[in-house]
Amino acid sequence: MIRKAFKMYLNPRCAKTYEERHQKLWPEMKEVIRSHGGHNYSIFLDEDTNVLYGYVEVESEEKWQEIAKTPINKKWWDYMAPLMRVNADNSPVQDDLRNVFYLS
Amino acid sequence: MIRKAFKMYLNPRCAKTYEERHQKLWPEMKEVIRSHGGHNYSIFLDEDTNVLYGYVEVESEEKWQEIAKTPINKKWWDYMAPLMRVNADNSPVQDDLRNVFYLS
User: What is the pLDDT, as a whole number, of residue A45?
Assistant: First the structure.
């Protein structure tokens, strides 16, 4: 299992809506995450900076990246785009973090 | 299991040393983490900002906090203090992040 961590950037005053939408994450999105090998997925908010930190364990990087090509994920990006810093295709701007320590 | 995430602050030009020391983490420190209910512990470095992100699953918050009172952990703090932003007792300055999403 690969442990991934990455940053995303929430717009000001969007924390409540972001959290509410994730609490009601579409069942089809949950299914896509699982069928693409994503496990133990958490997102944390840094309330000082509005930076979001994702942590997810994935079976393979390639399989995980395939999520981006699914219609349901594109629909989710469009839905979330007003709340976040996004790229031209509405995907969230995402910066990977480097693992420097692990203890099982 | 409680999923905790927190920020710590690395000093400039200390990434290599920080990582090397964690790769050689003292067996006594590993033992203390495990005996205080810590599991699946990762630390990630944000190379843009020198911020460290800890992610750890703990059995109880109280048990986890007890680590701070152990002599070996104090020794570890003293050893790591030159590399990090620390409090008066050499504990690393640590800011908790708020969980906003989880999918098993």
Answer: 98
Q: What is the pLDDT of residue A9?
A: 98
Identify the segments of chain B with pLDDT beneath 50.
Answer: none
> Which is catalytic among the residues B22, B34, B39, B63?
B22
Nearest Cβ partner for A19 among B44, B100, B104 = B100
Tokens of B64: 């986890």
Decide if A43 and B104 are in contact by the 8 Å CB cutoff.
no
**Cβ pair A45:B98 closer than 8 A:** yes
Over residues B19-46, the pLDDT tens digits come to: 999 999 999 999 999 999 999 999 999 9
List the domain boundaries for chain B: 2-96
Distance separating alpha carbons of residues B51 and B54, to the nearest angstrom: 10
Residues from chain B that touch A83, judged by Cβ atoms under 8 A, are: none
Task: Give CATH for domain A2-96.
Answer: 3.30.70.100
**Spans in chain A with pLDDT lower than 50:** none
- Please answer yes or no on whether B55 and A5 come within 8 Å at the CB atom: yes
The contacts of residue B86 (CB under 8 Å, 6+ apart) are B77, B92, B93
Provide the number of CB pairs (under 8 Å) joining chain A to chain B: 95
Cβ within 8 Å of residue B64, ≥6 positions away: B4, B36, B37, B38, B56, B58
Sheet holding B2-9, edge to edge: A98-103, B38-46, B51-58, B2-9, B95-96
ipTM of this complex: 0.95
